[in-house]
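Retro notes (design track)

What went well: tokenization of the new backbones is finally stable.
What didn't: we kept losing track of which sequence belonged to which structure.
Fix going forward: every design gets posted as structure first, then sequence, in one message. First example under the new rule, 425 residues:
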């Protein structure tokens, strides 16, 4: 296993690469934002690369409108053809035909798959056309298929294992993901490269200069604002955060929670909020491609995920000067917040850990809980938030250290690491 995240790279060594980045869509998410940032970085260095999307959805048009003037995004299905993943699965022969024709037309030498569906597609087409193929693993595969029935889990495991055998390289965005590949799928270390995601730090600093006033959101100037950002689905752990927030309200009266995101669990989460009597204290705001306005008016960023691949939004929040409290989920937060070398397998946390760059909390239990009770993890999480809000010294320490840590995860480091990997194929 290689770990590549060095900012120094001799650009004169670049080959005449022609890269096709394949992804399901550019619907709001960390992997999608990261691909846009990477593609633009490579474009600035005269590397030919196109983003090929299956579903023609782009939630980042407004935030990246200048970048998209220089980037090429090619949809395989037009908007009127794109419905559900099942529909798209049935259209696989058409997708394959269009993708093969596109690859031949643009003479791509390297194909990079960036999510589960595109990983399968990339591997198959890459082998068929004898192209160099790279899998960009952006989330825990094992955790991602847990909700599927046993037969479907086994099918996915077999296909994924086959893909791992056939591709040239697998890029993991955290050391934890690399450990998972080696442990569960016996992937050889020399096939795996770890490259941390990078953020557009300077871009974030410019965007967050525009301020949203608290009264615009019907918030008091005296309110302490907590914020989280992510898809509203099971993986992100919002129901546990809402239950924990009920305890936070008992410790501090002037506190509000902003939940940024959209997803299938929105109505369920709103119903839970009403049941707990928190409807006036929690704001559900739809996904925005540039959440930094809201980050700037907030006091603490909370990350309640049950599993991840890395956790881009953690770094983005830290870049905005927000102290962060995160669950110790697999994988990413521990590597980001500790600042030290992490050896896997790790021992699950049983208590709150005040790391160098942020705070780690035990993972929330994934069991269905009674409305009247709170778990130990929820109580510990709430107590830590209250302690942090009441300690200006602790708040200021993590604001400063968080920004320092965010600077480390630069686009330059990430981009050069990708170039070095792709040039080595």
């Amino acid at each position: 296993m290689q770990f590549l995240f060095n900012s120094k790279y001799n650009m004169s060594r670049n080959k005449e690469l022609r890269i096709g980045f394949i992804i399901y869509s550019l619907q709001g998410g960390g992997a999608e934002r990261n691909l846009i940032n990477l593609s633009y970085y490579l474009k600035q260095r005269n590397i030919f690369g196109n983003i090929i999307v299956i579903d023609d959805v782009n939630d980042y048009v407004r935030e990246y409108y200048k970048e998209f003037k220089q980037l090429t995004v090619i949809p395989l299905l037009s908007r009127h053809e794109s419905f559900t993943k099942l529909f798209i699965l049935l259209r696989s022969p058409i997708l394959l035909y269009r993708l093969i024709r596109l690859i031949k037309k643009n003479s791509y030498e390297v194909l990079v798959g960036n999510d589960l569906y595109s990983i399968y597609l990339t591997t198959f087409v890459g082998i068929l056309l004898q192209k160099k193929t790279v899998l960009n693993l952006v989330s825990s595969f094992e955790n991602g298929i847990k909700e599927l029935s046993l037969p479907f889990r086994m099918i996915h495991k077999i296909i994924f294992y086959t893909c791992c055998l056939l591709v040239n390289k697998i890029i993991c965005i955290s050391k934890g993901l690399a450990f998972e590949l080696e442990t569960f799928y016996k992937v050889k270390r020399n096939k795996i490269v770890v490259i941390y995601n990078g953020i557009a730090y300077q871009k974030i600093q410019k965007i967050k200069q525009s301020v949203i006033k608290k009264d615009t959101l019907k918030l008091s100037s005296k309110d302490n604002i907590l914020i989280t950002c992510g898809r509203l689905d099971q993986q992100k752990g919002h129901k546990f955060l809402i239950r924990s927030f009920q305890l936070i309200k008992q410790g501090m009266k002037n506190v509000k929670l902003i939940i940024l995101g959209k997803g299938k669990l929105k109505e369920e989460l709103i119903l839970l909020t009403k049941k707990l009597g928190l409807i006036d204290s929690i704001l559900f705001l739809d996904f925005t491609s540039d959440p930094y306005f809201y980050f700037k008016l907030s006091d603490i960023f909370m990350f309640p995920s049950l599993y991840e691949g890395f956790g881009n939004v953690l770094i983005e929040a830290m870049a905005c000067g927000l102290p962060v409290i995160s669950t110790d989920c697999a994988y990413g937060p521990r590597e980001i917040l500790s600042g030290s070398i992490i050896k896997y397998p790790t021992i699950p946390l049983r208590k709150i850990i005040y790391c160098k760059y942020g705070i780690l909390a035990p993972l929330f239990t994934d069991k269905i809980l009674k409305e009247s009770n709170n778990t130990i993890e929820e109580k510990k999480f709430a107590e830590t938030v209250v302690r942090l809000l009441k300690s200006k010294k602790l708040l200021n320490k993590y604001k400063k250290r968080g920004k320092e840590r965010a600077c480390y995860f630069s686009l330059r480091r990430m981009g050069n690491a990708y170039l070095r990997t792709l040039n080595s194929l």
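Added context from the reviewer: The chain is about 45% helix and 15% strand.
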